[in-house]
Amino acid sequence: MAARARSEERRAEIMRAALEVIAERGYRGTTLGAVAERVGLTQQGLLHHFPTKEALLVAVLEDRDHWDTGGGARRREGWRLELLTSLVDYNAMRPGIVQTFSALLGESVTEDHPARAFFTHRYEQVRADMSESLRDEFGDRLPSGLTPEQAGPLLTAVMDGLQYQWLLDPEAVDMPTVFRHFLTLLRGGDPGPAGG
């Protein structure tokens, strides 16, 4: 059991190092050798835990999503709009993670990128989750008349688009405040609980 715990600890350490290296160099500029060196392993030692660079990338992305969804608990409970606001606030406190995720998302639109399937599947799930959140909040129609299914992709686009704007110019774009403004717009001018 102790060996398994050490192995899991080492995997977590490798994923943290991979995240740092990807943030510095981008996915294409990241090598397994650079990640191994960061954690004091040989490349062969790293391959024991992650057989390919692609496997390491997917593990890093899945781990990031796992943290954001509270280990999947939030997905089971549904994403209330207040929880989305908390997630935006949380992301504003960790620019390095958001930058790495955004860079990988941008790179993944190319045909041969190993994260393309991950992000494609992720967005299918996120759009469905956002639509469900909006249905929980508003029922079958938002104040604008849109259905939750029509507004779900818009909510997703605003969250991710705000991250890019904030990363490029954090002084000009207060991501949490702007997101709250968007929720006020969704609610038809009502800021919602405690001012949104």
Describe, in short, the structure shown.
The chain has about 200 residues and is mainly alpha-helical. The protein has ten helices and no strands. Helix content is about 75%, strand content about 0%.
Describe the SSE topology:
Layout: H1 2-29, H2 32-38, H3 43-49, H4 53-68, H5 73-77, H6 81-91, H7 95-107, H8 116-138, H9 148-168, H10 175-186
Beta-strand proportion: under 5%
Average pLDDT rating? 86
Count up the helices: 10
Q: Helix- and strand-based class?
A: mainly alpha
Shape: elongated
Would you count the extended β strands for me?
0
Helix content range of the residues, please? over 70%
| Major sheet description | none
Question: How far apart lie the N and C ends?
Answer: 46 Å
Low-confidence regions? 70-76
SSE order in H/E notation? HHHHHHHHHH
Radius of gyration, rounded?
Answer: 19 Å
How would you portray this structure in words?
The chain is mainly α and 196 residues long. The protein contains ten helices and no strands. Helix 9 (148-168) runs antiparallel to helix 10. It is elongated and about 60 Å long. The chain starts with a helix and ends in a 10-residue tail after the last helix. Mean pLDDT is 86; it is low at 70-76.
Key attributes of the depicted protein:
196 residues; mainly alpha
